[in-house]
Design brief:
heterodimer; A: alpha/beta; Transcription Regulator spoIIAA; 4 helices; B: alpha/beta; Beta Polymerase, domain 2; 2 domains; six-stranded mixed beta sheet; 13 helices; elongated
């Protein structure tokens, strides 16, 4: 599981690749730390190369969303595969995030 | 003018202090106003006033509106509430204060506002506070723009038009205030009906749906679904589902309760078919409502388009919602409620 964080067009972008399964959660959460600290920037989580997301992965996304919303920032999820989208749908989180 | 220039820093401080005192007091009392405007009279404006009526003023203290504030309320009844607060905060010069709302002649046009001339309790220069509604303010601004108070006397037919318009706005102000009271009473009634379980009398709307959600009507089904994987239930808003429920023709909270009762078992079966083969142990608190809506569509021949419409409504239109609809249709095909439906159709 790889996480790359970069700034793009004034947004904070996290590019995820691989499987965000339970084992990958601790390192992924650490790597996504800058997303909690950004100020006055929208967050884009690029999931184009994310093949799977576990409950732990959903929890990371939810906590990023919670922190961002308090600061008035948006969180967009980009490039979700059918498999990952289905996980958002079956857990009822499909309309909590803004999908690009 | 020299006295004015010396007094200017005091006047500016006075303007700020009064503004802050008013803002704080209104906020404490929970009175929301559209605006509180303030100004210190400019030198040019003062010069103009003195040119017109200079003989009236011996010292700068004779001028009561060097500092002026204007509180613009939403409703006519709030003008009196603001006035009560102003009376509590400041000393009122009753000789100079005017309730212009009571001054109209029957053939006069323009309706105005409440003007208090005040002083801080610890003394200092006087200042004026005008209190009026948004409509009164709009009227005042327009008539100022049209210049009806100008030197030219207007013919009777113009005066009559102004009078009619003024009357209309006054009526609108009164009606807004009455409507607000009626709506507040309606809301209280609906909340009371919801709390007492008399749901069939309560029309489904954003307000009533919000009240209904306080009864946690989806908790039982959520817990049942969560038990599949011992999932944590993460609280989210369910308001985005209201248009979906309305599209199903649900008109009252009673209809909604029946919708839940009639579809809960099948919604659980659908959720089970999706979640049992995963280890997903976190669910949104809207999961139950989502599955109820999807089951309703399936049982009422909504098909792929109906399912996609649910996702489009809650999530925004997206071609990917078609994929979700296809997936749901495929998984639901083997479930007992779909089998029963097919048997029934034979």
């Amino acid at each position: 599981m790889e996480v790359k964080i970069q700034e793009q067009d004034g947004n904070m972008v996290a590019i995820l690749s691989g499987r965000l399964d339970t084992a990958a959660v601790p390192n992924t959460e650490k790597a996504m730390g800058p997303l909690y600290e950004c100020e006055k920037q929208d967050i884009i989580i690029d999931c184009t190369d994310l093949t799977y997301i576990s409950s732990g992965g959903l929890r990371i996304f939810l906590s990023i969303l919670k922190v961002a919303e308090k600061k008035g920032e948006h969180v967009y999820i980009k490039g979700v595969t059918d498999n990952v989208r289905a996980i958002f749908a079956m857990t009822g989180f499909i309309n909590i995030f803004e999908f690009k | 003018m020299e006295q004015y220039r010396k007094l200017l820093p005091t006047l500016e401080k006075l303007s700020t202090d009064v503004y802050e005192m008013l803002t704080h007091a209104l906020s404490e009392q929970g009175i929301y106003v559209t605006a509180i405007e303030r100004r210190v009279k400019s030198e040019k404006s003062l010069a103009g006033k003195l040119e017109l009526k200079g003989a009236k003023y011996k010292t700068v203290d004779d001028i009561t509106d060097l500092v002026g504030l204007r509180v613009i309320t939403f409703y006519t009844d709030e003008v009196d509430k603001v006035a009560a607060i102003v009376k509590r905060l400041f000393d009122i010069d009753w000789q100079e204060s005017v309730d212009k709302r009571k001054l109209h002649q029957l053939d006069a046009f323009g309706y105005n506002s409440l003007h208090y001339i005040c002083r801080l309790k610890e003394g200092g220069p006087r200042f004026e506070i005008q209190m009026r509604t948004a409509l009164q303010h709009a009227w005042s601004t327009i008539e100022h723009d049209i210049g009806y108070k100008g030197a030219v006397k207007l013919p009777p037919e113009f005066r009559r038009q102004f009078s009619r318009l003024s009357g209309m706005l006054e009526l609108a102000d009164d009606e807004f205030a009455r409507l607000r009271i009626t709506m507040t009473e309606y809301r209280r009634q609906m909340e009371s009906l919801v709390k007492s379980g008399q749901l069939s009398d309560v029309l489904l709307s954003a307000e009533t749906f919000r009240s209904y959600l306080e009864l946690h009507p989806f908790d039982r089904l959520n817990k049942r679904i969560a038990a599949v994987n011992q999932a944590e239930i993460y609280p989210v808003s369910m308001m985005s589902y209201l248009p979906v429920l309305e599209s199903f023709g649900l008109e009252t909270l009673g209809n909604l309760q029946t919708f839940i009762d009639e579809n809960s078992d099948d919604a659980y079966q659908l959720a089970l078919s999706q979640l049992a083969i995963t280890d997903l142990d976190i669910l949104s608190s809207s999961a139950a409502l989502q599955y109820l809506c999807l089951v309703y569509v399936l049982k009422h021949d909504g098909g792929r388009e109906g399912l996609k419409a649910v996702y489009d409504t809650i999530n925004g239109k997206n071609d990917a919602n078609g994929m979700l609809a296809d997936m749901m249709l495929e998984q639901a095909a083997t479930l007992s409620f779909m089998q029963r439906k097919l048997e029934g159709e034979k």
